[in-house]
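Hi R.,

As promised on Friday, here is the backbone we talked about, encoded as structure tokens. Could you run it through your design pipeline when you get a chance and send me back a sequence?
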């Protein structure tokens, strides 16, 4: 996903290498080039501004002028600031003191939510947990069946609407699913919710109603990293409309420019917790800001 950005930043920083001391002009030029590279990669403007300002401030400071190898020092600063933009520390799931831990998924239709539900369930099961999936996406045709398929692939049971337990009413299904999870001693309940193709008041109201009904320990906002700049508006709409405790980036295997993925933490204030990198259930892992920064800087 970040190949072009990675090449551009690599070239900019390599240009510094031949130099001994860095003049203020060198630093200005480098900052300008970094700014353009980030904007062209679709990183949102406030994030670019904050990032470049930090680089400039630190690159003109004592840590670079006193360094034996100033160019390397600038690379180190860019790396550290990139990690900062991506959230610094890895943020892990918070488990409830009294199980089950309820994890609610929210996001647009097509963001990869249902797939993610299966991925997360498999990942948790492999760690010795006993998750339950709850199918509350009653909007998209086949979403329930799709969740049942990924549940089967993950070896995780699915609580789905049936006559008598809330057909047509996602809030009743969500509540019933959590109760079922409790009774059957599942320590984690993952609630898949409906998305729409765009941000929509009815979808938000439904997500809020589900959130209020099940009081989740985590609300994970699932976002397709390929959707470019509109990712930011979508993330803000979900933050204001539903609220979330963490972000999952999907489709990081795509070849879009991906800058939105680099902006979402800074813009929403919520940590990126997981990343999806393919359609297979195993193509998923915890998001590590430092590893991502290293990947981008090559
Ligand atoms: P939902 O509408 O949010 O539940 O989205 P789905 O889980 O149905 O995913 C939409 C499409 O994206 C499906 O074709 C998935 O196979 C695909 N998909 C999901 N996650 C990824 C990913 O990380 N990488 C790629 N390349 N495709 C993905």
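Update: got your reply. Pasting your designed sequence below so it's all in one thread:
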């Amino acid at each position: 996903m970040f190949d072009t950005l990675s090449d551009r930043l690599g070239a900019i920083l390599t240009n510094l290498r031949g130099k001994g001391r860095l003049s203020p002009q060198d630093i200005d030029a480098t900052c300008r080039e970094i700014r353009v590279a980030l904007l062209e990669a679709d990183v949102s403007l406030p994030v670019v501004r904050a990032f470049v300002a930090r680089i400039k401030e630190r690159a003109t400071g004592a840590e670079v002028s006193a360094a034996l190898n100033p160019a390397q020092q600038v690379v180190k600063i860019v790396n550290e600031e990139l990690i900062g933009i991506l959230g610094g520390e890895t943020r892990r799931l918070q488990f409830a003191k009294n199980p089950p831990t309820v994890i609610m998924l929210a996001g647009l239709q097509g963001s990869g939510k249902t797939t993610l539900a299966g991925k997360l369930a498999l990942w948790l099961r492999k760690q010795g947990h006993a998750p339950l999936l709850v199918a509350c996406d009653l909007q998209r045709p086949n979403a329930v069946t799709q969740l049942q398929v990924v549940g089967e692939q993950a070896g995780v049971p699915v609580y789905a609407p049936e006559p008598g337990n809330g057909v047509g009413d996602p809030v009743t299904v969500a509540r019933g699913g959590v109760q079922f999870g409790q009774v059957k001693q599942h320590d984690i309940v993952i609630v898949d919710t409906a998305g729409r193709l765009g941000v929509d008041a009815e979808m938000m109201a439904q997500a809020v109603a589900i959130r209020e009904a099940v009081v989740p320990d985590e609300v994970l906002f699932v976002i397709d990293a390929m959707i470019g700049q509109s990712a930011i508006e979508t993330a803000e709409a979900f933050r204001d409309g539903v609220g979330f405790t963490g972000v999952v980036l999907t489709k990081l295997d795509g070849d879009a420019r991906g800058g939105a993925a680099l902006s979402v933490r800074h813009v929403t204030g919520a940590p990126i917790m997981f990343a999806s990198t393919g359609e297979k259930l195993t193509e998923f892992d915890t998001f590590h800001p430092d590893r991502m920064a290293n990947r981008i800087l090559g």
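One thing I noticed while checking it: The mean pLDDT is 91.

Thanks again,
M.
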